[in-house]
Specification:
Strand content: under 5%
Number of strands: 5
Low-confidence stretches: 686-702
Distance between the termini: 79 Å
Mean pLDDT: 85
Shape: elongated
Largest sheet: 3 strands, antiparallel
Length: about 775
């Protein structure tokens, strides 16, 4: 900051600019509210099909969001400019006051050009004739003091000007197209975020072995504090640089460096998560600096880092462990994943794994470490997809459709319509356990991560989304998520589906959750006569471009999922809840409603029959007819009914907690009714299901069931649902009994199940 520039600074024009920005922010707020209420709101109410239902609707959503971001950016710019102007005016006043005080002491201050200035002492003309003999001219100390004071003022003004300029550039550059969502109440907030990022970057610039636990704690605290701050994230990431990020984390995370320190280990565990969150946030910037950062990170992937730590890991090995956490840019994840799988295909095979072998002691994962040491970079990458639904949907997108045709696509009926990444990961890749000596050597963490990635791709939610997030978020399915679901159903409903599920048990729960999330579309496919006359009245689409599995495809898919205890339980729970919600929706108040309720019960009974028959057949195949182990397996499968307790229902969806998983791991199931009625309350309330409670009174019976008892439970649960529908409706009961609804339900449950094996789908897996 030049002295004269501040001394004679006229900030009137800047003040006018601030007024314009404030007025713009005010107007943009009105536009943003209008765009969300009218533009976006009307688009979602419109019953569009084809391209309008996909491309146009998505474009409108993005446009409405841009108005919100435009308001946020304008408001932030106005605040930063206003605060900076106030500071500079204050520094100008301080400077002029100091110069005036100097003049009173006979000191002259002048601009020397090129950012320099000078302070000199004046000599009075009558100094030699002064009768008092006193020397009025200022001494060198006064000169030095004024010079130092002015320098401090100029330094502060320079910092105010340059840091504000840097913050504004970061905000504007972060969105190459459109607007940034960076939101700061004051200039000081933005500037402090940048300064703190620079301070934390200095820690990573050190030798990782020289970093103290105190420094790691400070690093963790700041990364956690600023995990959603765009300026902090970008400044931190770009200052550190891709390679230093990788070498630093590998250095501090290597468990074999020195003596084990539990306090340091806990700090590194948190660092893995905090670095992942911060770097993920940084990738959301579109600035040239971050685009270059991302390209360099991907380029580092296949190469070893040239360090002594963590068995000299590749860039993939380190970055994939960091990206287990965080919200990443979709395109970055896809570019990274494409290169990773291309490389993995070159090194993956039946021999010694490049990733999992005795020479590789690069244990860089601190979360669920016992069964996942973090040596396989594909695992970490798939976990990243599991937390980034948009990226996952893109990574597993169907190859035979485009954004313009996805709303009118045909169902998947041949391998060429299945994504190559999905085929490789489910059919071709050789998966190896990455467990510790104390872990489960039969467990493959990578396949579990694959399930998480596919959950995100098909549901539109992170695989571990909370119940509150699901209830508030509602429907997230789209034509693109449904297209991925069609691929999954095709693969696991194929003739190899039983063997695939048996060989990939870690995927079972995820597959059950995926099917549960599409149970309304599955019921729709079951409702027709073959591939004809499917019941859109009873099972209307709740989102555009609904999944089409075909009648045969739905039966095949359910018949495979029913074979596994975990997938059977998840799908059955979703089916039961959906049927009950349909009964709530179609209360017996009209002939049309009663007909819809009948069809919902029949489709639900068919699905249950397929699932239960598959469960019995697989248990018998595994353990033998009527064996104790068969009965125990069926006993465990009958306990799915307890999953309903604790379920939360929002608009259009329910969140059902699954046992054996974290509290946040929810089954997302569609519900037919907008409000919860009596039928659903009997399931999710304290009583669960009165008909089932009585049947489970005997602990021995809970633990062990014959196939006959298992089927009895299934039909009794359907019977309770039917009875709940008719409670308090004696006239309707008489009418429906005369229409033989009871026979229809029995025929649907048993007829599509054990009695007609040619229609129940795939045969059980046999070793």
């Amino acid at each position: 900051m030049d002295l004269d520039a501040l001394r004679y600074g006229n900030f009137h024009q800047l003040g006018e600019a601030i007024t314009d920005w404030e007025e713009m922010a005010k107007n943009l707020k009105t536009l943003a509210e209008d765009a969300d209420r009218n533009l976006k709101g009307q688009a979602h109410k419109a019953n569009w099909a084809g391209v309008n239902a996909t491309v146009t609707r998505e474009f409108i959503d993005k446009t409405a969001g841009e108005f919100t971001d435009a308001h946020t950016q304008a408001d932030t710019v106005a605040k930063i400019l206003s605060d900076t102007r106030g500071e500079l005016v204050g520094y100008r006043d301080q400077l002029n006051a100091a110069i005036d005080r100097g003049a009173a002491q006979h000191l002259t201050v002048g601009d020397g050009g090129d950012g320099t200035f000078f302070v000199t002492a004046n000599t009075r003309p009558d100094w030699y004739s002064d009768p008092s003999g006193q020397k009025d001219a200022a001494g060198q100390k006064d000169v030095n003091d004024l010079r130092d004071e002015i320098q401090r003022i100029l330094d502060k003004a320079t910092e105010s000007d340059t840091t504000a300029a840097k913050a504004l550039r970061l905000i504007v550059d972060s969105a190459k197209y459109g607007f940034s969502g960076a939101d700061y109440d004051t200039r000081d907030e933005a500037v402090k975020a940048i300064k703190d990022a620079d301070a934390m970057a200095k820690i990573l610039a050190k030798n990782p072995h020289d970093v103290t636990n105190t420094e790691l704690a400070s690093l963790n605290a700041n990364l956690a504090k600023y995990k959603n701050d765009p300026l902090f994230a970008e400044e931190f990431a770009t200052t550190v640089g891709p390679k230093k990020l990788l070498t630093f984390y590998a250095g501090v995370a290597d468990p074999y460096q020195g003596q084990y320190d539990p306090k340091r280990s806990e700090q590194v565990k948190q660092l893995q998560k905090n670095l992942g969150n911060t770097i993920g946030r940084a990738t959301l910037s579109d600035s040239d600096r971050m685009q270059g950062w991302e390209q360099q990170m991907i380029k580092l992937g296949p190469d070893q880092l040239g360090i002594d730590d963590a068995s000299n890991p590749t860039g993939y090995a380190v970055m994939s462990n960091l990206m287990r956490f965080g919200d990443y840019d979709d395109q970055f994840l896809n570019d990274y994943g494409n290169k990773l799988l291309d490389y993995d295909k070159q090194v993956n095979g039946e021999g010694i794994s490049l990733w999992m072998n005795n020479a590789n002691q690069g244990d860089l994962n601190y979360w669920d470490y016992k069964n996942d040491r973090g040596r396989d970079p594909v695992t970490g990458f798939l976990q990243a997809l599991g937390h980034n639904p948009g990226a996952s949907e893109q990574f597993f997108a169907r190859p035979d459709v485009t954004e313009y045709t996805i709303g009118d696509r045909d169902t998947v009926d041949k391998a060429s319509e299945v994504n190559e990444h999905l085929k490789y990961l489910t059919q071709d890749r050789v998966w190896v356990s990455d467990s510790t000596l104390g872990g489960n050597h039969d467990f493959v963490a990578g396949r579990l991560a694959l399930g998480h990635a596919l959950e995100a791709a098909t549901t539109g939610y992170s695989y571990d989304a909370s119940a509150d997030a699901i209830k508030a978020g509602g429907e997230h399915r789209t034509p693109a998520t449904a297209a991925v679901m069609e691929e999954v159903a095709y693969l696991y409903g194929s003739k190899d589906g039983s063997n695939m599920l048996h060989d990939q048990p870690e995927l079972a729960t995820s597959l059950g959750k995926m099917a549960g999330a599409y149970i309304d579309d599955i019921d729709y496919n079951l409702s027709g006569v073959g591939e004809h006359q499917m019941d859109n009245g009873t099972f209307p689409a709740t989102y555009q471009g609904r999944a089409d599995f075909t009648n045969k495809g739905a039966i095949n898919f359910l018949s495979v999922l029913g074979q596994n205890e975990d997938s059977h339980g998840a799908v059955t729970t979703a089916q039961h809840l959906y049927t009950l919600s349909a009964l709530d929706k179609y209360a017996p108040t009209s002939d049309a409603n009663i007909e819809h309720a009948h069809d919902a019960l029949i489709a639900g009974a068919q699905a249950r029959g397929i699932l239960d028959n598959a469960r019995v057949e697989q248990a018998t195949s595994d353990y033998g007819v009527a064996s104790e182990e068969t009965n125990k397996s069926l006993g465990r499968s009958a306990d799915w009914i307890k999953l309903g307790v604790g379920a939360g229902v929002g608009v259009g969806v329910a969140a059902i907690p699954l046992p054996g998983t974290s509290a946040a791991a929810m089954l997302i199931a569609p519900v037919a009714a907008d409000t919860v009625g009596e039928a659903v309350n009997t399931f999710i309330g304290h009583q669960i299901d009165k008909g089932v409670d009585d049947a489970e009174a005997d602990p021995a019976e809970q633990a062990q069931l014959t196939s006959s008892d298992f089927y009895d439970k299934g039909i009794n649960q359907l019977g309770v649902a039917y009875s709940t529908y008719l409670d308090g409706e004696p006239k309707t009961r008489h009418t429906l009994d005369s229409q033989n609804w009871d026979q229809d339900i029995n025929n649907a449950y048993y007829g599509t199940g054990s009695a007609e094996n040619e229609y129940r789908g795939r045969t059980p897996h046999k070793d």
